[in-house]
Amino acid sequence: MIRQLQPLDLLQAPLWLGGRMCEHSVTLERLGQTGTPRPLPSIARDQLLPRRRPYVWVAEDGGQVVGVAEGQPMAGPRAWSLRRLRADLEAHWPVAELLEQVSAAGGHGARRVFLRLASDSSLVNAAVNAGYVAAWEETLCTHQDPPKKSAPKAVGIVRRRQPADDLALCRLFCSTTPVTVRSAIGMTLEEWRDAHELSPQRAQAWVNVSPDGSVTGAAERWRAETSGCASIQAKGEAVPILLGRVLPSQPKRYLHILAADYQEHLRNELETSRFAPIREYMVLVKSMAAPVREVGFVPASV
Asked: Which single residue of 57, 58, 195, 291 could bond 79 by disulfide (Cβ 3.0 to 4.6 Å)?
């Protein structure tokens, strides 16, 4: 049975938050985790007391909670992400049913739901059966104490990202991604904006601006657990410039960078800079039709 989270589920928290109830969804703030269990009170606060309780679904089997899915809007209301997906894979229940319930987010304005899983996760097939489509793959690369090489001379300037850069960044996204990715995320400025994954707190963002005033790249850096994480979306000539910007200034610090399978320039630069791949992820997307608000009749021409 799939239902929404109830206050009484708090009583079972010590049972279903540990043991075989593993976290499968991967978000930006959880990149690079080493697998060390988080304290129970912290997990209970995040999962059982979310800001939007109606957006948490629970799978129950024989009176026991065997799965939990938490969905939340991304940067805009028309794109949602599965922030948490905990499931007991040894229990005999269809995980796809829990994933299908997230489609209820369509009633709150969602048109797309995004889910990031490990590429070798056993839940990939369940997500596909629930209507999710594999949109692209990502590689998490890491390097400890990167070499202090001098960054290439900037072509233009590197400055902090501003809200006014959104249109230029949307155009950059459309020019540097394949059509399959653009179709999954959305091709309009509003769709691209809504589907932007919320960055963790204290994230820093920069853009590279060429001498002619065009934006040729963007980068973000944030803290995740005990390491630093970064992402880069840029044209070829801007990749090494922005990579030099996100490299940690303090020694003995890990840096994780997320590179999509279509970002060839970035992947080549990471290999040259001696970054090593440590994890592979798959991003799946489920598209949902807009709900019918009003039924009407269209006169037929005779």
From this structure: 195
Q: Name the CA dihedral angle for 188, 190, 191, 193, rounded to a multiple of 10 degrees.
A: 120
- How far apart, in whole angstroms, are the C-alpha atoms of residue 32 and residue 48? 24
Tokens of 82: 């599965």
CA distances from 94 to 61, 158, 286 (A): 10, 49, 18
Domains of the chain: 2-138 (3.40.630.30), 141-279 (3.40.630.30)
> In 3-state terms, what secondary structure has residue 121?
coil
pLDDT at 35 > cutoff 90: no
Whole-prediction pTM:
0.84
pLDDT at residue 57, as a whole number? 82
**How far is residue 29's CA from residue 204's CA, in Å, rounded to a whole number?**
14
22 CB burial (10 A radius; 0-12, 13-18, 19+): middle
For residues 156 and 150, the model is more confident at 156
User: Phi-psi bin for 286: left (phi > 0), alpha (psi -120 to 50), beta?
Assistant: beta
